[in-house]
# Entry
Amino acid sequence: MRNYWSLLPAIVVIVVLILVYAVPTIINPQWTSTITALFRTTSVPADATPEEARRAAGILGPQQLKSRRMLAIAMVVGAVALIGFNISLNREAVGCYKAARAFGAIDGPDAKDPCIDMIYGTFIGDGSRPPNEKTQQPVKYYQRVDGKKPKYLKWIQNAPKYDEADLLFGTVGKCASDLSVQQLEDKIMVVVDTDSPCPEDSNMSITPIKLKKPLGDRKIVTIDDEPVTEINPDMDSWFTVLKKLATGG
# Structure
């Protein structure tokens, strides 16, 4: 999986440099102006006006004090946004990776950009086709889309909308078009309608299913009436990500 945390040391250096300038400037812009004036190498002309002498000494007027303080505040806001952007990228990438792995994907090249390549909504087929092969393959995992909506769906390709899905079934991308979901009176039967097992892969296709009536007591089963395992992967909260960042967890 692409490690956006590797950018963090460079971001921290940038942020520290910004804060070294910005914090004193917010408190008193005159301080930083006076310090930078000490490093000027050009001498003040003998016939300099009082205004030119003030500028050479780094003395700021009221408007300059205000503008520099506003600039420093903007720099601090930008520094915080830079850190937040990096954390957000990692939160999304890790969330998509966890979801793909929970549905059965293995590690591979697709894990470099999990929200793009490792897990995505189904492009071909919607699960409504009836099975017609003599033998089928089992589906191992499903996720319910109710109550707490899985947030990783916002970041994957061709993501199903929350109001268009009650159940999510994950299949290897190569077998997504063979998914068959039958909504029977006493159960939900879900299989992969192919006579040969789907190969393991590093990407998963997520097919949303809208129930015709509430699930109720109906079980979700696959071949031989084996129950399909319910999973509940999702993205870590911002608090959890910040905690891991602070503790190195």
User: Anything to note?
Assistant: The CA atoms of residues 91 and 241 lie 7 Å apart. Strands lie at 119-121, 137-138, 141-144, 167-172, 179-183, 187-192, 204-209, 219-221, 229-230. The radius of gyration is 29 Å. The mean pLDDT is 85.
